[in-house]
Amino acid sequence: MNTSIAKHETQSTLEAASRLDQLASIAEDVLSRCRARGASQAEVGLNEDAGLSANVRMGEVETIEYNRDRGLSLTVYFGQRKGSASTADLDPASIELTIDQACAIARFTEEDACAGLAEASLMAREFPEIDVWHPRPLDADEAVALALRAEAAGRAVDSRIGNSDGSSTGLSSGIAIYANSHGFLGREQGTSYSLSCSLIAGQGEAMQRDYWYDAGCRFEDLADPESIGRRAAERALARLAPRSVKTGEYPVLFSAEVARSLFGHLVAAVSGGALYRQASFLLDHLGKPVLAPGIDVVERPHLRRGHRSAAFDDEGVATRDNPLVADGVLQRYVLGSYSARKLGLTTTANAGGVHNLEISTGSEDREALIRGMGRGLLVTELMGQGANLITGDYSRGAAGFWIENGEIAYPVDELTIAGNLRDMLLGIEAIGCDIDRRSATAVGSVLVGRMTVAGDS
């Protein structure tokens, strides 16, 4: 790290700490005023966020956007009556009005036996270093230059890259306070950076588009712009002259960048809201197989530089490494305190969602899985939202490559892949070691043994 960047990080860290102290003081004052109005419990969150996004296309700047947001959200409980209100204005008069509104709402709502803060004994008391705060000086000119470099490198790969959907650089930083009437006060701060490029190969009706990107909490960890642009170009070129395939049942290999969606459906199906509403295809599956044998899914909220690392959840409950699936068997649900009470269970520190899922992998990468599958479909893009969490029915548009004799034969598009999520998850035959770590779900390519692929009749 050069001297100027180090100085900027030090100064930004001092400024963030000072501002967090101010927000903490506001939070404590709000809680005190809620108690004075007769609230039996209260919780308050304050946040301040800033960001920059630069978008270019065909060598020209299209947009430069700055954002700066802040807000206060408040929930009060009068017994088991709940009221919530929020404001984007931290002026004392606006905060006073927000408190009045939340208390008024609570006094007129019906009682809910499951309402209330998470148990005081579950509040976080230790705050491990998760290393997600890396402020860096990055102005609009540099952000534009990075995006232009990515696009230029991609367009230079081949004369068939005749157009662009654009390239973008994004950065954001945020600080937040969560406090409640148990005496808990937690501080969070984080940064994020991204760089992406989307290119178009071919001409007329034969055009094909594809993209590539990188993202992380530390700018220096991003791939260089040229490699992102070249990867986007190579992916677009590989999709030229696509064909369809004969409708039938085949093995389907989900490339790592799309495979994470399968585990997103799993998490949604075992989340408290879906369960207590009886709206999940995995009702009453605790202790039962939900994935193929040998597959583990573990939540790791304290992962350094993780995309969703946190010492506590949205209710202040302490997070910890926690298995979700072991050897294919569901070990727990994904619960906040409210859904846990509805189900007669205990919160799993997942108010606000899961934190950094790691899925066990095999020893083979995507290329080895392709060789082993012989004949079938490699999916590199999914379209649509065709997953029914109540029934598990799954049907989505797909594009990718047809595999013959263990090799990529030709690109394919305008396909539909279909099955049932329960069968698909239990039917996973292999997970590759080509892990995509650009999101909070770290997983490699996933081979599902058999699905319906609809192409030419």
Overview of the structural elements:
- With 457 residues, the protein is α+β, with helices and mostly antiparallel strands.
- The protein folds into two domains: 3-236, PmbA/TldD superfamily (PmbA/TldD fold, 2-Layer Sandwich), CATH 3.30.2290.10; 242-457, no CATH class.
- It contains nine helices and 17 strands.
- The strands form three sheets. A six-stranded antiparallel sheet has the order 3-2-1-4-5-6.
- β2 (60-78) and β3 form a beta hairpin.
- α3 packs parallel to α4.
- The radius of gyration is 25 Å and the shape is globular.
- Its EC number is 3.4.24.-.
- Residues 42-106 form the Metalloprotease TldD/E N-terminal domain.
- It comes from Pseudomarimonas salicorniae.
Task: Describe the structure in brief.
The protein has 457 residues and is α+β, with helices and mostly antiparallel strands.
Q: What is the strand content?
A: 25-35%
For CATH, the homologous superfamily of the largest domain is named as PmbA/TldD superfamily
Computed over alpha carbons, the radius of gyration is 25 Å
Mean pLDDT: 96
Tell me, briefly, the overall form: globular
Number of domains: 2
Structural class: alpha+beta
End-to-end Cα distance, whole Å, is 58 Å
Q: Helix and strand string, N-terminal first? A: HEEEHHEEEHEHHEEEHEHEEEHEEE
The total count of helices amounts to 9
